[in-house]
Amino acid sequence: MAGTSRSAGRTLVVFGIGVAVLFGLVALAGSWKPALGLDLQGGQRITLRAADDDVSSEALDEAADIVNRRVNGSGVAEADVTTQGDTNIVVEIPGESNQALVEVVRRQAQLRFRLVACSTVRQGPCAGAQEPAPGDQAPDGQNPDGQNPDGQNPDGQNPDDPTGSANRPAPALAADDETTPTEDPTGSPQDGTQEGGRQAPADVEEALAFKDAPGQPSITAFSQATCPLEERPDDGPGEPLVTCDDDGVKYLLSPSVVEGTQLTSAEAGQDARAIDWQVQLGLDDAGARAFGTVSQALVNGRQQFAIVLDGTVISAPTMEAVITDGRASISGDFNEQTATDLATSLKFGALPVAFEDDPKNDTIGPSLAGNQLSAGIWAGVVGLLVVMLYCLLYYRGLGTVVIASLLTAGVITYGMVLLLSQGAGFTVSLPGIAGLIVAVGITADSFIVFFERIRDEMREGKSMRVAVEAGWLRARNTCLAADTVSLLAALVLYIFAIDEVRGFAFTLGLVTLIDLVVFFFFTKPLVTWLGRFAFFHRGHRLSGLDAENLGLDRLPGVAAGGAR
Amino acid sequence: MSRFSRLGSALYEGEVSVDFVGRRRTWYAVSAVLIVIAMFGLFAKGLNFGIEFEGGTEYAVTLPADQVTQDTADRLREEIAALGIEDAEQPVVTTSGAEAILVQTESLELDEVDRVSAVIQEVTGATADDLSLSNIGASWGRDIIERAVLGLVVFLVLVVLFIWAYFREWKASVASLVALGHDVVITVGIYALSGFEVSPATVTGLLTILGFSLYDTVVVFDKVRENTADLRARRTTYARAANLAVNQTLVRSINTTVVALLPVAAILWVGVVQLGSGSLKDLALALFVGMAAGAYSSIFIATPLLVQLKSGEKEIRLAEKRAGSRRPRAGKAAQAPAKTGGTSGATSRPEPAPARPVRASASAKRTQPSRQTRAKRGKR
Prior knowledge:
The complex is a heterodimer. Chain A is of the alpha+beta class.
């Protein structure tokens, strides 16, 4: 028996070291307060749900990435964009709310066609006197380390190299090969500019003028900007735009000539010879008219225009033909995948996934959040205290074991929550707190099963110390089975739980696991170790294991009278 | 407390015994009544689905306690209705707990949301910080229900498999599933009667109950299995052994239930009194009712049902017969006496350990050996 209690002592020491290590890690992580969820610190949560249930996780991730850029580009600091489940994207802004953001998130991406006045690969009018515009030279690289006309970067320049995206030629825009322009759009392109389309066409002349002479303020803005831009530029349709593409090429762009809303179709397809992949576009009437004008102006000298998505240039093709029927194709160094991607972006407005019109919008005012936090803490404190009190009243001396175990479990849980906050981005939400509180019951139950078993064994006539070991063997199995069920429930809940309530399942499962650890490596050794003391093994009146309490005339193995 | 502890001992020894198994008709009847009440609540009153299911816009305004009055609520209702927004013509304005007022409308457009927010701030003098809102489209709820149902099905399948694997007994699976259904129906019914809003938290609570109900049943069945392991050697019937098992775990069941319910009650109290609305309250009510029903059903429904299901088995019937020939009067185990005196403890308890009369001697004051013989100790 002495051996058992010595090894119990050892287990306790090792357990203590384990807890110390846990908190050592917490100290390394450096935060002693858990990260609070939105419902406890206030803030706004916008949830987008895909219109179609069948969305690939890559597409969802990509969409989340785009939403993230969009939100953070709109000047909201610290917005947190994550995917949730198979279909949702959640935007969370802790600590503040901004109803306008719903619009930012919800709106389809802004797709605009603009004319390129200058770019870092083709200085154009921005080059000033010392650098004449190489107007007749097709740009040969969109990429930052690709060629610069001034030869700043001479190596790696190989415009004819079809492989290697670093040197991919700029896409070219041509009349759609597959549909010859049999019918002329009503009215000449010039007429279109006078009649005016929805927004853009009226500005076409202005845009064309801008392309050739952007004016000093724009040129200054262009030369001062560096790629990548720190903030998403303000993509106003009537304003010129200084922006970059993903490869780091900087552009000065004219006001918008065609809006994304004028785009009627975008498909990936192959050209007539079925060799190269291209993206085929369809424009509505007004768009077609504007585009016709632009193409006439640009085709001469194969100048570039840019397709701008949410302020970022996604493609800057040259104009290779006059396109008046609104059907154009962007060709270039596409393969099937990149062509499809671009078509998808154009079609769905940046997001590769179509989302339902009404995002879910939750805003939690800091006042309510404060109330909820204090309510959660109150419920926790009260719940824990009444459980401790009940156990103390019923189990007396053993009740202190319950209290010690609950406190230990609490300390470990707190440590784990801190670690998970730091390491895995876990945040404590109100349902999470509820899960912790409910788990107090589960944890205490393990001890009750154990103690009742010990008492049963003593009623069978075993001494306290023997009863502890015998009772342990049986209580252990019961608790393992019961905790398995709890874990199973928590797991299923976690997988199927809805949105915010998931925190409940998580903490419930977490505490169930911690309960097992505490039960095996703290409670059991503690009871064994306490068995060394006469207070317990001789059945002191307050130990909870005295004869009267057990309903026996006297304790087995203890002289009548016991340790009173 | 100590009287309760003594009761535990008496229950363990079989001195005091509640006839859970034999009087099953009574318990079934009690449950039937509860279920009828629940059904009444469910169909007559109906569940009050929250905006997560129906769509809508809900504002919660946190105010000083003296401002949370019916008067403020009435003024808010009039002012918002006066805005002339179609979806906010009939706002539902209620006080919620001590420090908040809730305003619910149909789902609003963005600019309408702002207009209603402005009116609320104007009427109550609250700042933007005091204002919380949820705006949810009508189609949103579809998802929640689908996932809840899917979760339920997956959980039930897992549970059946787990219990079957643990007890090697499909009848145990059936009995615990029936108990589970019983708990869920009662919880849903009482929830409907309470008029609380059904939110995702409610659904979570309901799914959690499944775990708890089962957990309780597993513990009780574990003891039943232990007690009924070797009916012949114990000279008892399955029904009596099972009943003893329930009695022996009764104290634990009560303690467990109390200990589990106390924290939930704390959450419920805080949720209702302090917050008045929201996920805490919904979760806690579902859990509270469900846990209580779960404790009841594992004792009063699951075990008697298990006995009933197993009563047809050959082995069990043989044990009944043996018992019948031993004690003709108590032939039918189902009619075992509700309370057996201390003397009959020996018959209802499989392994009595009576203190042998010991002759007074010089060593009489020494504790007498209480170990049982090797044969009786067995390998339990």
